[in-house]
Amino acid sequence: MAIIDIYKEVRKRSEEICQPLKTEDYVVQPVVDVSPPKWHLGHTTWFFETFVLKPHTDGYVEFDPDYNYVFNSYYETIGARVIRTNRGNLSRPSVEDVYGYRKYVDQAMEIILSQKLSKALHEIVLLGLNHEEQHQELLCTDIKYILGHNPLFPAYKADSHKINISNDSFLNEFVSIDAGIYEVGYNDNGFCFDNELGRHKVYLQPFRIARQLVTNEEYLEFMNDGGYSNHQFWHADGWDWVKQHQIVSPLYWHNINGAWHNYILEGLKPVDMGAKLCHICFYEAAAYAAWKGMRLATEFEWEVAARHLYWGKRWEWTESAYLPYPGFKKAAGAIGEYNGKFMVNQMVLRGASEVTPPGHSRPTYRNFFHPQLRWQYTGIRLAQ
Asked: pTM, whole model, 2 decimals?
């Protein structure tokens, strides 16, 4: 498919995700980690304007010079920006203005994409497209958080694809992987992020890893056995997090008249016990694994075993800290801020989720979040 057609397809999907929203939904920011949908639409557009149009189009006129301040996310090289906690205070620009911005930039991008691109510019455009796909997943998770914390628990749309998928009919099995030296990291001709590069060898001890993810029913056993009240299963930071925030269940779970319900995209529903567990943080994942007398896999174990696993329903916490691969180098300029500066105090997740855009996942993909965060579609796979 031509790059211009891929561009149109990706840009269209972002707007389709927002189609069920009311205007008021576009502006809400319940917590710092959740950005308003309007901001996502503007930021992904700003990326193409900033890194493609302005440096590569003669005489390009910005849609609005103030948008660099409004829609810059974390690029220190680019200049000052609205701090993350204040994104929800932006009643202006309006939703209508943001869609006008997208249309303006799209028209300019389609002109430049109809021409032959240099290799360097082609790579920047691909990065921008994958960047927007990342934000499409964030759009889905942020919209769910916004609606799931509305006291009325409104449905995103009544006929949306169910997130709670019944467990597979066969029993969960464990795959045995022999000890040995394995190669990990991206090694293909397509797109990947810079944090996947630097293919290298790792030595792994023999291990076993579950083919399937943990279900709601299995996690409820942990809850009913006092999992959230027994410090022995928790990291010290995790136990502090449980006590400070009085955590007793996964995100979106509500005990109503003695029965567990959870918010899904169709609204507040009884928990589907056969569905894959979702919206838990690293601390919870590690505690559950300890309760089972097991552990989480490292990111390298996960990658080596991936072809044997049923993955793609949930992002899976690993035991691995987010660190650079051997030989990792930041790109020059603002693009170099994309991944490298976040390689501290975060844990790696592998796999994908049901709201990951089609074609955006691969076995070498390294997602990463702080260990207390759980608004993403995160789950647990056991190892030993």
From this structure: 0.94
